[in-house]
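Worked example

This section walks through a single chain of length 256. The input is the sequence exactly as stored; nothing has been trimmed or padded.
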Amino acid sequence: MVEEKIPASGRELAGKVALVTGASRGIGRAIALTLAGQGATVLVNYNGSKQSALEVVSQIQAAGGAARAIGCDVSDFGACGRMVEEIVADYGHVDILVNNAGVTRDNLVARMSEEDYDHVMDINLKGAFHTIRHLTRYFLKQRKGKIVNISSVSGVAGNAGQANYAASKAGLIGLTKSVAKELAGRNICVNAVAPGFIETEMTQALPQKAREAAVASIPMGRMGSPRDVAELVAFLAGDRSDYITGQVICVDGGIV
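Given that input, the structure is written out below as tokens.
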């Protein structure tokens, strides 16, 4: 497991409440820790491993931060609505939404099943729509909010064997740009971050030859860390990015 520590930083997000989906491991975990390190109260969303989510919460609390685990399958529209209502009822507001929850079911398109295509789209793309849809009413009332969607370089450039994943992440970019135009007049910023090869449990599980090929495709000659992604997300979630919206920023060592 790649161990991420809460980075020492300022308190730029003090008083903010952030919902991070898929935050129990990998990039989502790093985002949760980084936002908490900057003072935000973090709702650590999970669907699979409650224990992993509780470990993230414990790490945040041990460092003096505020966090809580909240289970929800983001592909379920109604469940997302109930999750948002629960958060608002308990905290009074939500200021930051990070749509990080995502899955892969890779295969060549000639062999890909409809189930595998739909499953990836339901979580990666529809899941983001669900949370945005339910939180938008509160952001509009507040006349302020930050939404950061975690896309991928696969959604920008495509990737063989990932037609479903790339389509979901490309769709997330389109969703980002459209919602950004709709909400900009209410001071709500919506941006996407597109990571490349990042050192996570997923990339560590790659066969050695696949890892070598991946690194060889990166101009900087190395994979990034979850922290590299998390720091950008924290910037986009804070006040210093108030005039940035509708953008897609790659964190990929130069691949795209």
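What to look for: The chain has one domain: 17-249.
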